[in-house]
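Q: Given only this backbone (230 positions), what sequence would you predict?
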C-alpha cells in the first residue's frame, strides 16, 4: 500500500518515510501543494498524510480539491495549528483524522493503520451478503470463501444486487446498470442473466436467494432456510 506524505519539512519527511517503511508501507513525498496535486492525479494512494502549513498553499485546499474531484482517499491531517476551528474545518472537509504537531511517530503510524483498516481501500469495495462476497475492483466472487468464477454480466448483476441487498431493484435499473445506456439489449436479457446467476450461486452452495418480485424487479437476501440448515 502506498502512502503520500505531503510535508515541507525535509527532516520530518525523512522520519515519517522511515517509520512508514518500517510499518510495511510504500511512501511518496511531496514538499508543496502543487507537487501533491501532481502525485494525487497520477497515483492511487491508500492514504495521504497532509501537512496544513505548506509553502505554496494551505493543505486544506489540497483536501478540498481532492473531495471536489471525488477522490475519497483517506487523509490524515498533520498540523502545527491545534485550534478547534482548524480541526473542525479539516474534519468537515472530509479528513479522516487530525494530529497536532509535535506528535509521537508511533501514534501517527497506529492511527494511519487504523484508518487503512476501516477504509474500503483504493481497490474498490468488498460487498458481502450471507456467505457470498464480491470484490468490486478485482471483480472476484467467493461463496463460503471459495472462488466462484462468474462471467462478466453475471458478475455485474451480482454486484448491483449486493449493493442493494434487502431492497428491490427494478428490472430497468438493473438493466441500465449492467448494460449502460446501450439500447441494443434483448428484453429478456436481464431475466436470463439473473436465472444463470441464481443457478451458479445455488450450485456453489450460496445461502442467498434472488427473488423475482412480479412487476417490481429483483431482491436478493439471505435464504433463511439455507443459512439455518448450514
Ligand atoms: Ca509545514
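A: Predicted residues:
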Amino acid at each position: 500500500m502506498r502512502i503520500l506524505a505531503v510535508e515541507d519539512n525535509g527532516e520530518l519527511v525523512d522520519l515519517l518515510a522511515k517509520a512508514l517503511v518500517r510499518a510495511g508501507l510504500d511512501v511518496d513525498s511531496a514538499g508543496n501543494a502543487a507537487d501533491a496535486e501532481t502525485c494525487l492525479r497520477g497515483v492511487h494512494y491508500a492514504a495521504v498524510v497532509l501537512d496544513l502549513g505548506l509553502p505554496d498553499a494551505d493543505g486544506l485546499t489540497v483536501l478540498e480539491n481532492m473531495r471536489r474531484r471525488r477522490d475519497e482517499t483517506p487523509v490524515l491531517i498533520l498540523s502545527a495549528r491545534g485550534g478547534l476551528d482548524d480541526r473542525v474545518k479539516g474534519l468537515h472537509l472530509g479528513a479522516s483524522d487530525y494530529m497536532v504537531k509535535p506528535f509521537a511517530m508511533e501514534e501517527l503510524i497506529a492511527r494511519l493503520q487504523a484508518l487503512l483498516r476501516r477504509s474500503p481501500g483504493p481497490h474498490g469495495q468488498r460487498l458481502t451478503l450471507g456467505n457470498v462476497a464480491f470484490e468490486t475492483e478485482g471483480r472476484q466472487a467467493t461463496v463460503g470463501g471459495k472462488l466462484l468464477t462468474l462471467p462478466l454480466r453475471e458478475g455485474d448483476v451480482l454486484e448491483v444486487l449486493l449493493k442493494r441487498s434487502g431492497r428491490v431493484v427494478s428490472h430497468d435499473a438493473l438493466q441500465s446498470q449492467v448494460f449502460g445506456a446501450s439500447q441494443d439489449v434483448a428484453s429478456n436479457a436481464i431475466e436470463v442473466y439473473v436465472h444463470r446467476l441464481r443457478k451458479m450461486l445455488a450450485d456453489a452452495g450460496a445461502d442467498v436467494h434472488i427473488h423475482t418480485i412480479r412487476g417490481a424487479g429483483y431482491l436478493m437476501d439471505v435464504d433463511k432456510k439455507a443459512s439455518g440448515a448450514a
